[in-house]
């Protein structure tokens, strides 16, 4: 989409700010001679990387950042590489599957989670699920490590034969992973005054903090108490596309421009799912008209604070963990 000049200036200044903070945290994490301070900087860097990706890579993946598809691709691919994620496979899962049918079993690839997690009401219940409200927040600490080392490789290996050039697809995957580990682990080890094992401790700390923030931020947008999970009956989803986008999404501080600034519109998930090709800058303005309209149409949009979203997700885990 084409953006107004004032919005372009806003996004340029925002990109400069986010880049400056990233470089500061990255440099401090590498150069500080104190282990505790280094770990704190690595942890802050992990959270900042997520917000950087939400603000720019996410919009670029939906082609709502630049008018040029090429620029959108390079921005998206570069920032997702800094997270350790494989850009191509994530975009395919996100834009082609999740956005098409959120919370629909068999169509939304985001539901292909660990069997230890039960959020679908029709999913099989196992005795260990009654403890999921306790063990899942602990497992969330390792989400990004699981994504980098297990989820991405499995998906890429399963899909590479469907590519027009499978060898190039695999080599690109390996190349991007090497860039990530060189930038976030090898280079810090080389430049840091700390021993390699202590830099590795900072790297793991970054992933633990990043994973917890990423997990709760992502998962509470669709999986909280009251979330809708439409079933497929006779090859048809049991609701309209629009109703599914509204009823399966949860907003976090939807009218706050400050929240929209830091979360890159990811907190305005209803607006994002209804208008994915619109830049996140416009979401608070859209919500001012969208929310009253949805209420008139008989919908009650789900929304609340970040902490409220965490509580409602934990409540969902508790409810789904009870025996059927």
The tally of domains stands at 1
State the distance separating the first and last CA atoms: 47 Å
Number of distinct helices? 13
Shape: globular
Q: List low-confidence stretches.
A: none
Give the topology string: H per helix, E per strand. Answer: HHHHHHHHEEHEHHHEH
In helices, the fraction of residues equals 55-70%
Q: Radius of gyration, Cα only, in angstroms?
A: 20 Å
Physical arrangement of strands within the biggest beta sheet: 1-2
| Mean pLDDT across all amino acids | 92
Would you mind describing this structure in some detail?
With 324 residues, this protein is mainly alpha-helical. The protein has one domain (5-321). It has 13 helices and four strands. The protein has helices at residues 5-31, 35-61, 69-82, 87-98, 132-139, 143-159, 166-191, 196-219, 241-247, 257-263, 269-274, 283-296, 306-321; strands spanning 232-233, 236-237, 250-252, 302-304. The strands form two sheets. Strands 1-2 form a two-stranded antiparallel sheet. A two-stranded parallel sheet has the order 3-4. Strand 1 and strand 2 (236-237) form a beta hairpin. Helix 1 (5-31) runs antiparallel to helix 2 (35-61) and helix 2 (35-61) packs antiparallel against helix 3. The protein is globular and about 60 Å long.
